[in-house]
C-alpha cells in the first residue's frame, strides 16, 4: 500500500490533483514537470509503495536524494502535482490507485489526470473524458473524443476507483508521439486543458524549443539507423561521405 510521507504541510481547499505518470510521448510527465518548475512548486510529499523500483533520484544543483514518486503543491494556484521518474509495476497498479484516491477524497481534491494517446498525427488534438457529471470539462471548452479508446495504467486504475466510489474524476487525453518524448503534446495539455480548468497561466513557449531539439535528435537517429542498415546490406557509399 502506498505511504505518503508529508514533507511540508499546505493549505489548499477544493484544489486540483494533476498526475504525471509516464505514458505515450511522456506528455503527462513533461507537462507536470513543466508546471512544477515554472510555478516553483514546493515538495509536499513523497510516495512509497511496493512495486516501485527501489531507487533514489538526484537533481541538478541539489545534493538531496529523493524517492522517484513525489507530490508537489502550490497554494496560490491551488494544485497538487504528482511526478514519477519510474514506471509502476502492473501487478501493483490497483494497490497504488486506491490509497491515492483515498487521499484525494479525504482532502476534497478534484482529480485532473493526464494521458497520452499514441498517434502519428501532427495536430495533437486534446480530448476530455470523465467519471461523474460536474460539467467542468464542458465549461472549459474541452472537446469530446472523436474515437474510441482506453485509459490504462495507474491513470485508468485511479479513474476506475473514482467511478466505483461515484467521485468526480477528470482526464485529459492528448495525441502524442508513440516513440519519442513529445513536448508539443505536453504544451497542448497545459495551454488548452490544465490552464482552462484550474484557472492559472504558465509560460510554455520554451516547450517549442524542446520539441525542435528532439526533432533534430530524431533526424540524427533516423540517419544513423539508415546508415547501419546500408552497411549491413553491403551497399556502396559516395566517396564524399568519408572525407
- Terminal CA distance reads 60 Å
Q: Which series of helices and strands comes N to C?
A: EEHEEEEEHEEHHEHH
Beta content comes to 15-25%
Low-confidence stretches: 239-243
Rg, nearest Å: 20 Å
In helices, the fraction of residues equals: 25-40%
Instruction: Write the CATH homologous superfamily of the largest domain.
Output: PAC-like subunit
- What structural class do helix, strand and pairing data support? alpha/beta
Do you know the CATH topology of the largest domain?
Rossmann fold
Global geometry: globular
Using the coordinates above, name the CATH class of the largest domain. Answer: Alpha Beta
The gist of it:
The protein has about 240 residues and is α/β, with parallel strands linked by helices.
3D structure, described in words:
- The protein has 243 residues and is an alpha/beta fold.
- It has two domains: 3-202, Rossmann fold (3-Layer(aba) Sandwich), CATH 3.40.50.10900; 205-243.
- Helices cover 35% and strands 24% of the residues.
- It is built from six helices and ten strands, in the order ββαβββββαββααβαα.
- It has helices spanning 27-38, 93-106, 136-139, 153-164, 183-198, 206-232, and strands at 3-6, 16-20, 42-48, 57-59, 62-66, 69-74, 79-84, 110-118, 126-131, 169-176.
- The protein has an eight-stranded mixed sheet, with helices on both faces. Strands 4-5 form a two-stranded antiparallel sheet.
- A hairpin with a 4-residue loop joins strand 6 (69-74) and strand 7.
- Helix 2 (93-106) packs across helix 4 and helix 5 packs antiparallel against helix 6.
- The longest helix has 27 residues, at 206-232.
- The radius of gyration is 20 Å and the shape is globular.
- It starts with a strand and ends in an 11-residue tail after the last helix.
- Residues 239-243 have low confidence and may be disordered.
Amino acid at each position: 500500500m502506498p505511504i505518503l510521507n508529508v514533507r511540508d504541510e499546505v493549505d489548499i481547499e477544493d484544489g486540483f490533483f494533476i498526475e504525471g505518470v509516464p505514458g505515450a510521448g511522456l506528455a503527462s510527465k513533461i507537462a507536470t514537470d513543466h508546471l512544477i518548475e515554472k510555478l516553483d512548486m514546493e515538495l509536499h510529499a513523497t510516495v512509497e509503495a511496493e512495486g516501485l523500483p527501489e531507487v533514489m533520484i538526484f537533481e541538478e544543483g541539489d545534493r538531496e536524494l529523493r524517492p522517484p514518486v513525489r507530490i508537489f503543491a502550490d497554494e496560490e494556484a491551488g494544485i497538487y502535482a504528482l511526478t514519477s521518474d519510474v514506471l509502476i509495476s502492473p501487478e501493483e497498479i490497483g494497490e497504488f490507485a486506491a490509497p491515492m484516491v483515498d487521499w484525494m477524497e479525504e482532502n476534497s481534491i478534484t482529480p485532473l489526470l493526464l494521458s497520452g494517446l499514441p498517434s502519428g498525427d501532427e495536430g495533437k488534438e486534446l480530448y476530455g473524458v470523465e467519471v461523474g457529471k460536474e460539467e467542468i470539462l464542458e465549461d472549459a471548452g474541452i472537446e469530446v473524443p472523436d474515437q474510441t479508446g482506453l485509459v490504462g495504467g495507474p491513470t485508468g486504475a485511479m479513474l476506475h476507483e473514482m467511478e466505483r466510489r461515484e467521485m468526480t474524476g477528470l482526464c485529459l487525453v492528448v495525441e502524442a508521439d508513440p516513440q519519442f518524448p513529445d513536448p508539443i503534446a505536453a504544451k497542448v495539455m497545459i495551454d488548452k486543458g490544465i490552464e482552462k480548468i484550474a484557472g492559472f497561466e504558465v509560460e510554455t513557449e520554451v516547450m517549442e524549443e524542446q520539441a525542435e531539439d528532439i526533432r533534430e535528435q530524431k533526424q540524427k537517429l533516423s540517419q544513423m539507423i539508415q546508415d547501419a542498415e546500408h552497411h549491413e546490406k553491403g551497399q556502396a557509399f559516395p566517396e564524399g561521405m568519408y572525407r
